[in-house]
Fold:
Amino acid sequence: MSEATTTPAAASTPVSTPASTSASAAAAGSAPAGTGRRSNIAVRVLQVVLALFFAVPSALPKLIAHPSAAESFDKIGFGDWFMYLTGGLELAGAIALVIPILSGVSALALSGLMVGAFITQITAFDGQNAATPLIVMALLLVIAWVRRHHNADLVALVRRRA
Structure:
């Protein structure tokens, strides 16, 4: 039987494969199959809250050279350049954290910054606020794990552009 003799209903019925389902879910910015709607919303809210945390109380004082931030970086022993670099990285990470295709990679990168912040708290500030970067890093790693499916989409996009 040739393709021309197939019934219209059979020809128009979409066939859903696991690959097409996950690709369309990723393209729509939603979670892959198996992840509940509530957990997806909870992780999205966590992403927004952490993005606001990194942008406003963390990056902003560094980027405007607030005296408290400048004093902290002087105590660390690095100059203003490191304060601006850290603030810029935090702001870039905060923005990328709310962009679906970048969210997983951003969470990993910000986790790296939190490792540095933890080490700095232990060495330069006698562990005064050492728990804070660890808590934030744990939340970021949750985001990175849940949004890990976006990493393959990002790699495919970069390869298409190259």
Notes: The two ends are 43 Å apart (CA to CA). Residues 104 and 144 are 4 Å apart (CA to CA). DSSP finds eight helices and no strands in the chain.
